[in-house]
Structures are given as C-alpha cells and as structure tokens.
Amino acid sequence: MTVTSQVKENAPTGIYSKPEARKILQYLLGHTQTALEPSFLANDELSYGLVETILGGVQPDVAGLLNEMVSAGTLASELVDKAPSCPECGSKQLSTRYTCPKCSAYDVTRTYLLEHLKCGKVGNEDGFKKGDEFVCPKCQTVLHNYGVEYRAVGVWYECNKCKNSFNNPNHIHFCRSKHHEFSPDRVNLVPIYKYELNKKAIEQIRKEVLVYAEAISFLEDLGLNVKAPHSLPGKSGEPQPFDIVLMLPKKGWRSEEKIVAVDALVGDLPAGTDVVRAFAAKVKEAKPSDSCLIAVPGLSEEAGTLAKNLRVDYFEGSTLNEAMQAFQSKSIIKDYVG
Asked: pTM, whole model, 2 decimals?
C-alpha cells in the first residue's frame, strides 16, 4: 500500500507489504500498551510467544522480522538482555565447563574449605565429615553450630583425573548443539530486545494497516480470490510486486484464468506521475491479464494524463470505499461478481 501524502512521503512503507507485519501491527493497534516480550525455550532458543500466537504458529526468524519493523519505524525496541552464543554456529545452547588449570579436564569436584574456630583447623568439607556429623579432624570435636563453632572460609576444587587441587578453575563454553568448545573471550553476545508499537507513528500505522485491510476485505467479501501482497514473474526474470493480485476463474470452456494486478495509492494529496510510471513498468514486465491503480483521493492532472497515454486504468475516489466501488462496477471484475 503506497502512501502519497507529502507530509509522510519519506515514510518507509515497504514493511506493510508483509502479511506477518500487518497482523502484528493490527494486534498492537488494539493493544497499544502490550509489549512483545522474549523468552527462552527449553532448548535455550529465543522465542516471542505472543508473536507466534498472533501469526498462528511458529514462524522462521521472528526476531529478524521484528528488527525489520523497528528499522521501518513501526516498532520501538528496548534491550532487555544479552545472550551468549556459539561463535561457530550461533547456537545459544551453551554450557559453561569448569576445568582443571593443569590438565584441562572438566571432571572436577567442588568442596568448601571449613575452619574449626576453636582450634583453627582448616580443611575441605570431606575431611570434616563423619557419617551425618561434622567432626574436626584435628581435635575430634563434634561440630554442631555453623557460624558459631565452624565456618566456611572458601571454595576448593579437585580434579578427578589428575588429582590436582586448586581454588580457581578455568572456564570453557561448550556448545551442546554442535559440540564446539571455546573460551569466554570468543563468545558472541547477542542482544535481546522487547518490542512495542512506535507511539510516534501510530496514526501512520493505522492508516497503512487498516486501509490495506479494508481494500482486501472489500474484494474478499465479493467472493474473489485475493492474494495480497503478491508478486508476478517478470519477463526479465525479476518478480514484480503488487499490492493485490486477483485470480479470476475461467468463464466458459475455452476461456483462461485471468490475473488482475492492482496497486492502491492512499494519501492526503493526489498521486503524482512517478507512481504511474512505476506501475506501468511493473505491468509491462509482468504482463497480467488486466491491471489498474486504485487512487485516493485520486491522481494529479498530470498523472491522469500520463496514465491515459500509458494505457493505465485507474479508479479514483475521495474515500477508499468510493474508489473500490468504482473498481467493482467499471473494471473487469464486474463480470465475476453478483
């Protein structure tokens, strides 16, 4: 859906051609205080559960879509975390291994260093344990009250492979997905954001999303097969995008399915010649059965003259509904609706 208002002529409207983005924006327009919050699944992968609910299931690269919507000015983002990920494969399924500084084995055991406050004996926790009791290995006093008779004074590690004892283990990250190992200085820190509607662009978003939905609903209510947005193959090999493509069924055994390509121009001022030239170029490349521009409030006088010279059909109206009514009654689709 193209907006031709001179006030907003630089607004990035390409995001509105994505059905997923439109669904998200439609939801947020009705829930303006709602944020799209991230969470981590059991496999440590990032998820935006509300987005999946809005779109009707798990979608590929949801974070990529949301960031694209931020770039387009429709969403605002806020950093909420930074997640470590594998520098080799990007997986967030990481474990941190405590390893022996002597042999690099990760089979290490951690114990506490305990001190008997009366006699001053310091040793590891295992040395103080006798059955279910703590007994000082130096004076054989049975210890009952932690913090009064004895206390922890530190942490001690022992390597079960080489029997080395140490108080500062090394740290290695382990990628559970692809079994990569890497040191902390190589880890990637991936920013994690929550997203909400860009409050500064609500009116622009409402115009784009709701107007586009109104045009599609109008045609679907007529019983037409609507694809929006949709690209048609061009003769050069490049796909040509249109706001709406109608697939009209065969009428009679000798007829063929007809493809009607439509672009809708909705703005505060009449559309200019640039949009007419761009549309004519796309139609020439794609060669649909029929094509037209829906223009609200219309085309400028110069653009209208150019459209006639280029044989571009167009339908105008002061409102979208008025222009769509003209399209219904005067275009090829009049023969396909009751």
From this structure: 0.57
